Amino acid sequence: MYKYQQLYDFSRNIFLKIGCSEAHASAAAEVLVSADLRGVDSHGVARLSGYVRLWEAKRINAQPNIRVVHETPSTAVVDGDGGLGLVVGPIAMQIAIEKAKNVGTGWVSVKNSNHYGIAGKHAMMALEHDMIGISMTNASPLVAPTFSTERLLGTNPIAVAIPAKNQPAFVADFATTTAANGKLEILQRKQQEAPLGWVQDKEGNPTTNANAAKEGGSLLPLGGDREHASHKGYALGAIVDIFSAVLSGANYGPWVPPFVAFLQPPSDPVGEGIGHFFGAMRVDAFRPAEEFKTHMDNWIGRFREAKTIPNQEKVLIPGDIEREMEAERLKNGWGLHEAVIKDLEALGEKWGVRL
Amino acid sequence: MYKYQQLYDFSRNIFLKIGCSEAHASAAAEVLVSADLRGVDSHGVARLSGYVRLWEAKRINAQPNIRVVHETPSTAVVDGDGGLGLVVGPIAMQIAIEKAKNVGTGWVSVKNSNHYGIAGKHAMMALEHDMIGISMTNASPLVAPTFSTERLLGTNPIAVAIPAKNQPAFVADFATTTAANGKLEILQRKQQEAPLGWVQDKEGNPTTNANAAKEGGSLLPLGGDREHASHKGYALGAIVDIFSAVLSGANYGPWVPPFVAFLQPPSDPVGEGIGHFFGAMRVDAFRPAEEFKTHMDNWIGRFREAKTIPNQEKVLIPGDIEREMEAERLKNGWGLHEAVIKDLEALGEKWGVRL
């Protein structure tokens, strides 16, 4: 079992070794390990060596000059200068929050960034300010639009965090595909089949092969097929792509650079790096925060008490599972997959950092 | 075949008869008939008599004092004063646009309104200003959250309109359910079955009975079931509900009043009327509009040319189907369902308005 502080310190020390400042290394480690804490193991320390390999390939800048290149009272475009998305994300979200303090809301589109960890972590920064937080990002193309065999969109997640009073916050955080890639990786490791509607093969046929996307196939947009409204998942993924990258000047669609160092970015980029989009809305820009939060408690309470289907689980509020996981893992620690442990140990050995 | 002008004039005259001002009657008729034009027949003149019956039941105010009750430079809450959503919607969206002119973006949450027609029409108001438009609304509860048998959410649509340069605009407009209620109504009329994943029966079992939601069952959130990520559709519907109603002070969840006059609103309201949420983002609050729109053309062109699955349709851009329908119907007119014609004729007779 591993504890939060141990993995945070290890990650932070690795980020320091590749040249990050103290502040950036702390921010990056906090975002990275928050994914493990919340049970999104695919986005946590399992990816640490991937970030380092991208830095080794000179595709991540460990000492970026992250700056606003255009702004209005409620908007900004941030140039991430090729930095870690784990660092660029919190800085851009903080700018959205500051703008919301001034004019009610703040909206920041980011270019020239990299993978930013879990979407929800950034959105949740708004909560302590009694703001609604929004976070989305584009990502390497893995998803085929409805009717296509081509991978043109990433799993492009959307996160929305909404504060409540006595109830815990509402925190939705989801890929705009039927299944996040992390869920497929779990099936791949267990050599299990995927439900129909998660992936298609390279000819565009429905398949239960959990490895289909690695064999020329694609992940499917939320909905799965046309009859079940995959055009809606495709539209959602497209909106995330456009807000994150066409608004900011990042790469979009099939031009988004891959997260892995062994694949080269497209030779004909249409922008810089990958893109994110952040929003912050001050609750009291609409109605008194106490009033809003009291009604959120009522909303949450009513949905939590909804009548359930016999023999099924209780109705959940978005964020329930991750919050319970976080409490459990903070207290008792958690196990890592054997391959991840080996990977971290090799990384530690290479850089002289103790796990 | 019916022509646009004929149905617009008829609808406008009916709205005048129930006491709407000239300006309000024009706005309402334009929004209403735009749904027919775009092929969303369920939201067009088929609903005209429904609005009148709600007015007869004193649940719609034909002479509302629509006003801003709270604002910041980038936000407002609008009180619709019980008016037609068809009238409140464009006024609130215009306020969002004005705020975007001033500070980059504008965000308006609306309470005390009624059904506002098709979501996309309002979002598209932003396009001529080189802005991105966003429109969403809550609605009478028909949808069960994942694991529940209770109808706690409406079909809560989201629309996002994004301008391009030479390409037509990107206009996504979709219910956050697998299928909009209008699609079920078509199956009901044809006495056909629904695909699994659209509805469940009153015990929460999957069913192909297209009438299930009328028999105590529910529509299902986008995704359909837990294995296909209905929790994501549920989260989207919940976000629409909260932005539209908890932010503004409208009714939310199961407290949203029904659109039909023969059902009474809940006796314990938690707010006023139904709620909407509008957003406008000036493209040049992020980057020069020409640059953005040129990249949107590139985005759209690339997706439109995507390789297709053999024997399937071409890849579509959100809004393609509705735009082609609009061009066709503007030119040649369109047919109405027999029941709708009878309904309109009866309405015309009652109010002395010629169809």
TrEMBL record, chains A, B:
Keywords associated with the record? Oxidoreductase
Organism domain of life: Bacteria
Note down the stretches annotated as region Disordered.
196-219
One Pfam family named in its UniProt record: Ldh_2
UniProt family annotation:
Belongs to the LDH2/MDH2 oxidoreductase family.
Q: Please identify the protein, giving its name as recorded.
A: Ldh family oxidoreductase
Q: What is the lineage of its organism?
A: Bacteria, Pseudomonadati, Bacteroidota, Cytophagia, Cytophagales
